[in-house]
Design brief:
The protein is of the alpha/beta class. It has 18 helices and ten strands. The protein has one domain (6-407): TIM Barrel (Alpha-Beta Barrel). The chain binds zinc ion. The site of zinc ion has 5 residues, from loops.
Length: 408
């Protein structure tokens, strides 16, 4: 889940204009055939999909109608039908805990975590199309049966108020924990928080790392500060993941992404960096453009005395954004991130963590929702990746790390 205001300000109209231009792309018959074949025959794992929190915001209820909502929907970036088209086999469902639930002791949110886990569990229980996955072998077995796996990762370790909470959430099916989110918590410092409460990991955080290793839960270093990242790598001897991070090389001022030294270190650790698709994670030029447009829209809306979210304000947003290009990154830039990560860390250490349903309308052209993953395999093949390389990026690398963490 990426904190953005811009999604409130940018309309979908530009997306529609661009959609037409995309029709002719990705149409080389040989590449298309190989890309589509990979999509349907290799295991695709996405490290981070924010469906549970989106459904919560949409007032998800345990009724027949709502339980079927993830199957086919007009809303959001994910539903079963589109995910099947995209060849998605195991999206990690993000159990996202906003930092404002942490409270003064800097932990909290356990009740929300449990309720989001209840939601994912109910969706899997009520729909034969889905099944929970708590082990890499279940992902492979369910893939063989044509069932989509829903593994779960907890985004923010704030609910781990006591060491024994790790066992509780392990028992409930959590298989990775993102150590923190947008604020420092009881475990470590966040990349978004300039307070730097602990200078990296807290003493309690070191204890929690060992609990996570002991309970075979993967450690996710997306969102943490650089100091936290390097301290984690020194403390543990299991491979760790970045479930949804991109490369700072392309976004120099954005500490939320990983710099080259970190990507190399993650490769040496045996882990995997899973590239985030949000435009603001991908391209500084897009970030600057969106910031400038946001200022323009805010000025006009304020000058006219409109309120955001009203039809009058929406019309302003529409007129400003529809006449502007460059507010979305492109799928080619996602491939640039993957290529550079491969150069730095090696082909065995790169994956994808789209952040679908978590980055608003900032998704790149060519990767607008879960039906579009095959376009990315197409672009990678076009750049000379072999089908075996693409399979590693699609899911085999993450499955290897998960298996190693399982073995302990
Ligand atoms: Zn996130």
């Amino acid at each position: 889940m990426r904190l953005i205001l811009l999604s409130l300000l940018l309309s979908v109209s530009t997306t529609l204009v661009l959609a037409q231009a995309e029709k002719d792309r990705f149409s080389n018959p040989a590449l298309r055939k190989t890309a589509d074949s990979l999509a349907q025959n290799a295991i695709l794992i996405d490290g981070h999909v924010d469906l549970p929190y989106r459904l919560k915001v949409q007032n998800f209820r345990y009724t027949k109608e709502f339980l079927g909502l993830p199957l086919e929907s007009e809303d959001g970036d994910f539903d079963y039908k589109r995910a099947r088209e995209g060849g998605l086999d195991a999206p990690f469902m993000s159990i996202y805990i906003p930092a404002d639930l942490q409270g003064p002791q800097k932990y909290g949110g356990a009740a929300l975590a449990d309720s989001l886990i209840d939601m994912v569990t109910a969706i899997a229980a009520e729909n034969d199309e889905f099944a929970i996955a708590t082990h890499p072998d279940s992902v492979r077995a369910q893939f063989a049966r044509g069932v989509m796996s829903l593994p779960m990762g907890m985004e923010n370790g704030a609910p781990l108020a006591y060491p024994e909470d790790v066992e509780h959430f392990a028992d409930r099916g959590i298989r990775y924990v993102t150590l923190t989110h947008s604020k420092d918590n009881q475990i470590c410092d966040s990349s978004y928080d300039t307070t730097r409460t602990w200078g990296g990991l807290s003493p309690y955080g070191s204890l929690i790392l060992q609990e996570l290793v002991d309970h075979k839960i993967m450690i996710d270093i997306s969102h943490v500060s650089d100091s936290t990242f390097f301290q984690v790598l020194r403390r543990v001897d299991v491979p760790v993941i970045a479930s949804h991070s991109s490369l700072r090389y392309f976004t120099p001022d954005f500490e939320r992404n990983m710099n080259d030294e970190m990507v190399k270190a993650l490769g040496e650790n045996g882990g995997v960096v899973m590239i985030n698709f949000g435009s603001t994670f991908l391209d500084s030029a897009v970030v600057n453009k969106r910031n400038a447009l946001r200022s323009t829209v805010t000025e006009i809306v304020e000058a006219r005395g409109y309120t955001l979210g009203t039809p009058e304000a929406d019309a302003v947003i529409d007129s400003v954004t529809s006449s502007n290009t460059g507010i979305f990154a492109d799928i080619e830039i996602v491939a640039d991130h993957i290529e550079r990560a491969v150069e730095l860390a090696g082909i065995d250490h790169v994956g994808i963590g789209s952040d679908y349903d978590g980055v608003g309308d900032s998704l790149p052209t060519g990767l607008k929702d879960v039906s579009d993953y095959p376009n990315l395999w197409y672009v990678l093949l076009e750049r000379g990746f072999t089908p075996e390389d693409v399979k590693k990026v699609m899911g085999e690398n993450l499955l290897r790390v998960w298996s190693e963490v399982e073995k302990g």
